[in-house]
Each structure stands twice: as structure tokens, then as C-alpha cells.
Specification:
heterodimer; A: alpha+beta; Thrombin, subunit H; six-stranded antiparallel barrel; six-stranded antiparallel β-barrel; 15 strands; 29% strand; B: mainly alpha; Arp2/3 complex 21 kDa subunit ARPC3; 7 helices; 70% helix; globular
């Protein structure tokens, strides 16, 4: 006597033979590999780019809808969270306002002097932030669900004037750069991405370096390539340097705030100083960003 | 699977993919974010079998890659295999075990992270293994495990099929 299980009507895969099962999975894996290969090899101008752009455009309303529904809950969480640190934050901000008020007066004098000297020298400058850019404010509608790429997707694309390599900022400082554009959306690589690099300068001392993501952390940056003879102090502000030389120029305009130096160290064996920078932007809590679209493109 | 069942399944996968790309990826807790889509795919694999799990993984991954303008196919590949493994586990050793969703989600979260690290490394991306396999993975694992049982219960109610984990009640005696 043998016992035979009656096949279930619901469990389609269980009823499926091993051959069919392997065939389906094999085809799906093959399709994934083909997509990866085509997407990886063809880049932004390949045949898949159009498909991805169309797909992103179709899916955009869903993403925007979910984002709009989720926003009040995020705001409520942020409000409740901020209550815990409200008193200490208020004290810190009062001290900052006193300090900034003093600096604003000094800067006003320096600005007038600077303008006068520029006119005397007929100084020709590169693009300046924010005067030479049109701001395009865009809602953040997505993030890749993995730890490999630090990026966001925003609800503004080529039809809004956004192009590849346009920088993105918030009121706090630099966010990143546009690395992919469709008609209605754009992907922005954050400063905390492993592949991001920005030439920067210590605003207080003029020491130059390159801001990179600090390995093994999620939101800490380092100011790399700072020579040992240069001076960098804890608490100094780091901003984009916006260099331009021999027809080449930085993708970022100069003067965008990046962060504050939190530690400086050097060893005998290292060629450069080890400078850690705490970014002004909270990359985990981005709701909207401003994409800087140049008024004049080369 | 009936047309209604397939539509329900597609709706669930699509909703999970959009929620993952828009909402869950931003919910950082202790340096990691929950992966709702992975949990949904694993639970669907357990509930509906390996073929449905693999197909759901492929479709969900594709939606995420389209929404986030990521390299097409990477998330699809990871989730196709995740759904397939979960389905095979549900069809074989997991049958009758109530903790199977927890076991499957836990193991597949770790395996998927490992596989993704290898995949990105092979594609030439800069991969910080410590960040991907320790700093992010530990909180993600805990959050995914917290989601596993509620999501499984919800999906069982939505897709309405008999779970692969329930022991088969009917047998036929062949003399």
C-alpha cells in the first residue's frame, strides 16, 4: 500500500514539475543577467536608457503619491524627535546667532571692499553660487534600497532643465551631483557615496583638499589630500573650492558649504593630514533638494 | 493560479516595491533600513512556491531599479534567487514549521546581502564590506525579522492560498 499526496490547487509551484520550475527560474536569472549586462555596458545613451526613462516616468506618479501620503507622518516623527533636544538646540542656536551676527557685519565690509577691488582689477570670475544658477526645487521620491550606492531620486528631470552633473544643495549645504536624468526624474549621487569626490577648501585657513566619504561610516566625510604643512583647525568650515584650470573646471561652483571639521590628525607615515568633516546636510532626512541649473551652459 | 490571484500577487509586489523605494529605504534605524520588499518576496515564496517567489522577486526588483534609476537587473537578480530559495524551503523542509518565516527571512537577508556585495564587486563598484555586511546588515536583519511575521500573516490573508508551511491534510491511499 502506498500513500500519495493529493496535489494542492493553490500551490502552483509545488504542482509544477521540477523541469518547469528550473526553466522558469533559469529564464528569470538569464533575463536579469542580460539586463545587467546591457544596462552596465550601454550607460546613459544605450537602448535600455530609453526604456528605463519611460518606466521611471510611468512610475513617477506612484512614487510621488506615496511620498505625499508619508510626508505628514515623517513630519510628525521629526517634530516629536526634535522635542527631545529642543532645549539644548535652542541654546546652541542662540550662541551661533551671536557669532554669526558679528561675522555678518565683518563680511559686509569685506564684500564692499572686494567689489571695489574687483572693479579696479577688472577681475573675470567663474560661475558663482547662487547668482549664476537657477534653482530647481525638487521633492525626493526615492532611494536605492541598498548600502552600496548613496543616492536619491528627485521629481525633476530634463524637462525642468536638469542635466547630468548639475550640483544639488539644500539650505544647509552641498548634497551631491546629478548622475542620471530622465524626463521627469533625476538621480543624485550623495556626497556620502563611495564614488563621490569634491575639491574643497578650509574657509578659515585656505587649506585645500578633496572631500570624500569616510570608509566604514554612513554619513561622515574626510578632507583628504591636505598637505602636512597646511593648517586645518577643529571647528573650521569646509566649502567647495570651485577650481578652474586649462579649460577644465570643477563640477561644483565655489562657496557651497559642506561641513565642519571635527578632528585633525597626522602620522609620520602618512603623506597627508587626516581631517574628518561632519556634513551640514542630514543625508538621511532629505525631503527636498535644490538642483542648481546654470544660467549659461558651455 | 487564477487570474484574480495573479492580479492580487502583482498588486502586492508592486505596492511593496514602491513603498520600499520611496518610504522604507529612508527609515534608517541604527544605520540600517528595513527591506520590506525582500520580506514580502520571501513570504510570497513560502506561501505560493518557488516559481511564484522567483517571478515576484524579478518583477519587484525591476520596479525598484526603474524607480531608483539604478543599474537594471541587479535587484531583480538578487530578489529572483531570494524568492526561489524561499519557495523551495517552503516546499520542502519548512512545511509544518511555524517559525519558517523568521528562519527564511533571517537567512535570506544575510545571503542576499552577501550576494549583493559580490555582485557589486564584480561590476566594479566600490564596496565597503564592513558597512554593507556589519553596520547596515545587523539593524536591517533585526528590522526584517520584526516585519516577517506580520507581513506573512497579512499576505496569507491577501493571497488566500494554502500556505506551503501547512502540512498537507489530504492523502490518498493507493492499494
Amino acid at each position: 500500500m502506498t500513500v500519495r499526496r493529493i496535489p494542492s490547487a493553490h500551490m502552483s509551484s509545488r504542482g509544477a514539475g521540477p523541469l518547469r520550475r528550473r526553466l522558469v527560474v533559469g529564464l528569470l536569472v538569464l533575463a536579469s543577467l542580460v539586463l545587467i549586462t546591457m544596462s552596465f555596458r550601454s550607460g546613459d545613451d544605450g537602448p535600455l536608457s530609453g526604456v528605463q526613462s519611460a518606466g521611471a516616468t510611468v512610475l513617477r506618479p506612484f512614487a510621488v503619491g506615496v511620498e505625499r501620503v508619508a510626508q505628514p507622518f515623517r513630519d510628525a516623527y521629526g517634530w516629536a524627535d526634535s522635542l527631545l533636544t529642543a532645549r539644548s538646540d535652542a541654546e546652541r542656536y542662540r550662541a551661533e546667532v551671536r557669532d554669526l551676527r558679528q561675522r555678518a557685519i565683518q563680511n559686509e565690509f569685506a564684500l564692499q571692499e572686494n567689489g571695489y577691488l574687483r572693479r579696479l582689477l577688472r577681475y573675470i570670475d567663474g560661475p558663482r553660487f547662487p547668482g549664476d544658477f537657477d534653482p530647481v526645487t525638487a521633492e525626493v521620491i526615492g532611494r536605492p534600497p541598498n548600502a552600496f550606492s548613496q543616492a536619491i531620486v528627485v521629481a525633476a528631470g530634463s524637462r525642468d532643465g536638469v542635466r547630468l552633473n548639475d550640483p544639488a544643495v539644500t539650505a544647509e549645504g552641498l548634497v551631491g551631483i546629478v548622475t542620471r536624468v530622465t524626463r521627469g526624474t533625476a538621480r543624485i549621487q550623495l556626497l556620502t557615496d563611495q564614488q563621490a569626490a569634491v575639491s574643497a577648501i578650509d574657509l578659515g585657513t585656505g587649506a585645500e583638499g578633496i572631500v570624500l566619504h569616510a570608509r566604514g561610516t554612513r554619513e561622515t566625510l574626510v578632507l583628504d589630500r591636505v598637505r602636512k604643512e597646511d593648517v586645518v583647525r577643529v571647528g573650521d568650515e569646509v566649502v567647495t573650492s570651485g577650481w578652474s584650470t586649462a579649460g577644465l573646471s570643477s563640477l561644483y561652483p565655489k562657496g557651497i558649504a559642506i561641513g565642519k571639521v571635527t578632528s585633525v590628525g597626522q602620522t609620520d607615515t602618512d603623506l597627508f593630514q587626516q581631517v574628518q568633516v561632519d556634513p551640514f546636510v542630514d543625508f538621511g532626512g532629505l525631503d527636498a533638494v535644490i538642483v542648481l541649473v546654470p544660467k549659461e551652459r558651455p | 493560479m487564477t487570474t484574480g490571484g495573479a492580479l492580487r500577487l502583482s498588486g502586492v509586489v508592486f505596492a511593496a516595491a514602491v513603498l520600499q523605494a520611496v518610504l522604507f529605504s529612508t527609515l534608517l534605524v541604527g544605520g540600517g533600513a528595513p527591506n520590506l520588499l525582500l520580506v514580502v518576496i520571501v513570504c510570497l515564496g513560502l506561501l505560493r512556491g518557488s516559481v511564484a517567489g522567483a517571478a515576484s522577486g524579478f518583477a519587484g526588483g525591476l520596479v525598484v531599479d526603474l524607480l531608483t534609476l539604478d543599474t537594471l537587473g541587479i535587484t531583480s537578480l538578487v530578489l529572483t534567487l531570494a524568492g526561489f530559495w524561499a519557495g523551495r524551503y517552503g516546499e520542502t523542509t519548512a512545511r509544518g514549521r511555524r517559525v519558517a518565516p523568521l528562519v527564511a527571512v533571517g537567512v535570506i537577508t544575510v545571503l542576499a546581502a552577501l550576494f549583493a556585495v559580490v555582485l557589486h564587486y564584480m561590476l566594479g563598484d566600490e564596496v565597503d564590506a564592513r558597512q554593507a555586511l556589519v553596520s547596515s546588515l545587523a539593524p536591517e536583519l533585526v528590522l526584517n525579522l520584526l516585519l516577517a511575521l506580520p507581513v506573512y500573516a497579512l499576505l496569507r490573508a491577501i493571497v488566500r492560498g494554502r500556505s506551503a508551511l501547512e502540512p498537507t491534510g489530504e492523502v490518498e491511499l493507493v492499494v
